[in-house]
Amino acid sequence: MNATPTIPATPDDITASWLSTVLSSPDAPVTVTEVEVAEVGTGQTGATYRTVVEYENRPPSLPDSFVVKLPYQDEEVRARVSPSYRAEHAFYTQVAQTVRAPVPHCFHSEIASEGTEFVLLMEDLAPAVQGDQLAGCGVDDAGLAVEALAGLHGPRWCDPELLHFSGVTMPKPDEQRAAMLGRVATMAAETTIEKIGANISADAERTLREAGALVADWLMLEPDRYCLLHGDFRLDNLLFGSGSRRVTVVDWQTVTVGLPARDLAYFVATGLLADIRSEVERDLVARYHTALLTHGVSGYAEAQCWQDYRLGLLQIPLVVSLGTAYSAYTDRGAEMMVTMLERGTRAIRELGSLDLIRDLSGG
């Protein structure tokens, strides 16, 4: 008789026996009798499944459905992005309870084989609706998102323990690491132009190249202001619902440490249509800043937050180029990268982010 696998390799391994094992505790055994698994989501680095279950005797603390996250099912992609699985496992097991960001409840998380074997068993947030990166969002949803972001950043603002957190995909950089990432960013920008350059404007292409050349200097600005970053805080990684939890943040595969407003700028400038963004971004930055204060952040002026927002916009071409260069290709993914790049590089130009970086870095 074959033993039940500890970590499911495929959705076929999400069995009643496996669920019974991971949901049970010594004093509260659980018996799952039936399982129905269906793929959900549009991830480019992970595979997500809704799992509806039946129990022999349903424990009151357990739901009738879960969401199970496994690695991307292509082995080559899985090996390449395994650090992202290590990051998500570390977030849920070491960090999630120390911040105030609204995240799904995690019932079980396990990782092995340097991250190529990975599983998350989480609450199913249906009927909450995933944000749509292509369509963009309204001002009300954007306000909910920036307040949720402050709940991630504020509680561990400039916490020195984060400098030693092993779960980040990219630690807070020193000069050597910044120079290395700068070289990677330059190469990724060129790869992005090769892949999707025919679909982006000349202005976006020029800004992408100029931004890539400044990444090393940009990473070294404001070194004394840092926190844990989501790293890919955008609409597709937010679920909007009703009731007490109006927004939930998912996909913690790109956590890093750096200037807090990188997450803020990345979300606002890619999640709102450009004309709306230019009208409301100052109000959204102010709302984020006010929320930070409620989480105990002090000595941080709103004017500095606005400047950090302008600096943080380089998160957009950096993440988009890395994603385009190294993630699995999908038609929607390519369209999304083009959309984010056009919106983000327009914001960079309108707010003078590249000149600001040059001025602050002495370049």
Describe this entry's structure for a reader.
- This protein has 363 residues and is of the alpha+beta class.
- Helices cover 46% and strands 15% of the residues.
- It contains 12 helices and 10 strands.
- The strands form 3 sheets. Strands 1-2-3-5-4 form a 5-stranded antiparallel beta sheet. It has a 3-stranded antiparallel beta sheet with strand order 6-8-9, covered by helices on one side. A two-stranded antiparallel sheet has the order 7-10.
- A hairpin with a 6-residue loop joins strand 8 and strand 9 (247-249).
- The longest helix has 22 residues, at 175-196.
- The protein is globular.
Report the order of strands and helices: HEEEHHEEEHHHEEEEHHHHHH
- Overall number of strands: 10
Mean pLDDT: 93
Q: What is the 3D form?
A: globular
Gap from first CA to last CA: 67 Å
Sheet of most strands: 5 strands, antiparallel
Number of helical stretches of at least 4 residues: 12
User: What percentage of amino acids are in beta strands?
Assistant: 5-15%
Helix content: 40-55%
Low-confidence stretches: none
State the secondary-structure class. alpha+beta
Please give the order of strands in the largest beta sheet: 1-2-3-5-4
- Roughly how many Å is the radius of gyration? 21 Å
